[in-house]
Design brief:
- With 630 residues, this protein is an alpha/beta fold.
- Helices cover 64% and strands 6% of the residues.
- The chain has three domains: 193 residues, Growth Hormone, Chain: A (Up-down Bundle), CATH 1.20.1250.20; 173 residues; 184 residues, Glycerol-3-phosphate (1)-acyltransferase.
- A seven-stranded mixed β-sheet has the order 1-7-6-2-5-3-4, sandwiched between helices.
- Helix 16 packs across helix 17.
- The longest helix is centred in the N-terminal third of the chain and has 29 residues.
- Pfam families: Acyltransferase (PF01553), MFS_1 (PF07690).
- It comes from Duganella vulcania.
- It is a multi-pass membrane protein.
């Protein structure tokens, strides 16, 4: 049965009003900020004596300053109060801020516009925890990736359209500034109207006492988040993306003007291509992840950020330098090498979408629901600090004589180092990446009733054992990590041994070979189940040498005697004859028949209560699930 497309959420009241509210907020932020940056970059002399390079790095810093100061308070408010009412309060605040900005535009008063930049930072700070805590309350687990993808797409499309309109409106003579002032107020009013359609989202912690000590509360938020190691490192990964994006995007105005020798339309073109990349990458996440939280996409996204960030440096040297008046976007696209730059910017955005969407979904699914908004607020604090650091690094490096293309290269290299560090701390990311690559390159895997694998709570999974990649295929199908029980000799194999040790697999040996290791394995299994983990065993005890299912041993009965948890039978189909199976069939002949990507299937059966578990009964269930397809 086919599942609804992620865009179907846009027809439902539980999602659509929220989507349009956040879309219009992102649109208005950038409609205002971009107009201000363009005006101060291309008409700086009439507004300020500061250099354009300093301005383009300073304004984003002022915008994110409230994230550092007020995120902790915003997280408390979002956990304490009902979210639709809080959203309406935030949108009324936006209307007031845009009226102040309008006054600044019309009176040519720069300090009022700067105050509005800070005010919109406050607006976004208050809305951020509400935005990402609202989704898990309204969406099902299998809708989270799609919902986050559509939300991120909407955010970046809103950013894109706001940047385009802001850059276009403000340069219109003689009434561009007036158009800008009216447009920002009108969009704020539309966002306010949309917010009144958002359904009620109850407060998870209404008894919470709000602490107005933002410094102390910020440290408490981050300290609480650090208790969940995977969530905290995911927050750091998320913040790193904003560091990367802030460092690159802040250079686009000066890069377009001074390096590419283009006018403001070239700046808009770069932002457009980048935003389209992020939007398309965010939407593709649902398809690539199979509608589950697939953190294997995070290393994939990180690789692309480094590869195409570095190539942007090299591509910048291949552009034919223009002379004379600054070129518009259409004229510049005819210059040699410009299309390579645009492709790099597009792919940086797309791989950024692959990187950021699974991280958001992972944080939403694994953090304490009662602390969701405060966790998001803690992440916003980190985001702000990382973005301030990005602005500071850009100012320092450019002051030391670095060119903007060199800054792109430094960012790409830093990304590679940070990714290696984070993934070494949380090997689950790399494990999921290897599994995801396997089932999206070498194999085509069909999942049958995979929703029977529980999203939370302990359970024992049992499956037939056909090849050395069984665990990787099963792991890729699961929405959460699995502790595999495996023959201790597998851990001695060069690559597979490292993979399974990294995945915290549990080694086991026959009693006659190593009784101590066997008993330790059962203790480790009981401990894993006590902690609420999924544990997978292959009751045959060894790979099949005939393609048929061997007798199930009694270990599974011993496990459920100690830990009263359900047992979920599963069956792999199509792996017999694999290069890493014990089939004597000619692998190349089989590959020729199957095509470049062989078809596999994983069928999941209904849970069996612990009191009903027997090795013979489980074998019958697995055999029925497998059928005749080996």
């Amino acid at each position: 049965m086919s599942q609804p497309n992620q865009f179907s959420l846009l027809t439902q009241r539980r999602f659509a009003p929220f989507f349009w509210t956040q879309f219009l907020g992102a649109f208005n932020d950038n409609l205002f900020k971009t107009a201000l940056v363009v005006m101060l970059t291309f008409d700086a002399m009439s507004w300020t004596t500061l250099s354009p390079s300093l301005i383009t790095n300073l304004i984003p810093g002022l915008f994110i300053l409230p994230y550092v100061l007020f995120s902790a308070t915003a997280g408390q408010l979002a956990d304490k109060f009902e979210k639709s009412g809080l959203t309406r309060f935030v949108k009324w605040l936006e209307v007031a801020i845009m009226c102040i900005a309008g006054l600044g535009w019309m009176t040519h008063t720069l300090w009022l516009l700067v105050a509005a930049v800070v005010g919109m930072g406050v607006h976004s700070t208050l809305f951020g925890p509400v935005k990402y805590a609202y989704l898990p309350q309204q969406l099902k687990p299998d809708e989270l990736i799609g919902g986050n993808g559509v939300t991120e797409m909407g955010t970046f499309v809103g950013i894109l359209l706001g940047e385009i309109l802001g850059a276009v409106l403000v340069v219109q003579k003689p009434n561009g500034i007036a158009f800008e002032a009216v447009a920002t107020i009108a969009v704020a009013l539309l966002g306010l109207a949309a917010s009144y359609r958002i359904p009620t989202a109850p407060a998870p912690a209404p008894e919470l006492k709000v602490s107005w000590n933002f410094i102390g509360e910020s440290f408490r938020n981050l300290s609480f988040s650090r208790k969940n190691r995977v969530v905290f490192l995911s927050m750091l990964g998320n913040s790193w993306f904003w560091f990367y994006g802030a460092l690159v995007l802040a250079q686009f105005p000066v890069y377009a003007k001074d390096y590419l020798h283009g006018d403001h339309s070239v700046f808009v073109l770069l932002l457009t291509v980048f935003s389209l990349g992020v939007g398309s990458g965010s939407l593709l996440c649902e398809r690539l992840s199979g509608r589950k939280v697939e953190i294997g996409l995070v290393p994939f996204g990180s690789i692309g950020l480094s590869v195409f960030g570095a190539d942007l440096y090299f591509a910048s040297h291949g552009v034919t330098a223009a002379t004379g008046p600054h070129l518009d976007a259409f004229a510049l696209m005819m210059q040699h090498g410009m299309w390579r730059i645009l492709c790099d910017v597009l792919l940086i955005g797309m791989f950024g979408g692959f990187f950021i969407v699974p991280l958001f979904a992972l944080i939403q699914t694994r953090c304490d629901p009662a602390h969701m908004s405060r966790t998001i607020a803690g992440m916003n604090i980190l985001n702000a600090l990382f973005m301030v650091a990005a602005a500071g690094l850009a100012i320092v490096l450019l002051g030391q004589g670095f060119t903007i293309p060199q800054l792109f290269l430094v960012t790409a290299l830093l990304n590679a180092l940070v990714a290696l560090y984070i993934f070494s701390l949380v090997p689950e990311f790399l494990m999921r990446f290897l599994a995801w690559m396997l089932i999206h390159t070498v194999h085509r895997v069909r999942l049958i009733d995979a929703d029977r694998i529980p999203d939370e709570g302990a359970a024992v999974l049992v499956c037939n054992h056909v090849s050395y990649v069984d665990a990787i295929v099963i792991g890729a199908a699961s929405p959460r990590p699995i502790r595999f029980v495996m023959d201790h000799r597998i851990f001695k194999l060069p690559l597979l041994g490292w993979i399974f040790r990294t995945a915290r697999a549990i080694p086991i040996a026959p009693a006659k070979e190593d009784p101590w290791l066997m008993e330790k394995a059962y203790v480790d299994i009981a401990q894993a189940l006590h902690e609420g983990d999924l544990v997978c065993i292959f009751p045959e005890g060894r790979l099949t040498s005939t393609g048929e299912i061997n007798e199930f041993k009694g270990g599974v009965s011993k496990i459920v005697e100690r830990s009263k948890v359900p047992v979920i039978p599963m069956a792999l189909r199509g792996l017999w004859g694999h290069l890493l199976s014990r089939s004597g069939e000619n692998v190349f002949e089989r590959a020729f028949r199957s095509g470049l990507r062989s078809r596999l299937a994983l069928a999941v059966g209904a849970p069996v209560a612990p009191q009903d578990v027997t090795p013979e009964g489980l074998k019958e269930r697995v055999l029925a699930l497998r059928g005749d397809w080996k």
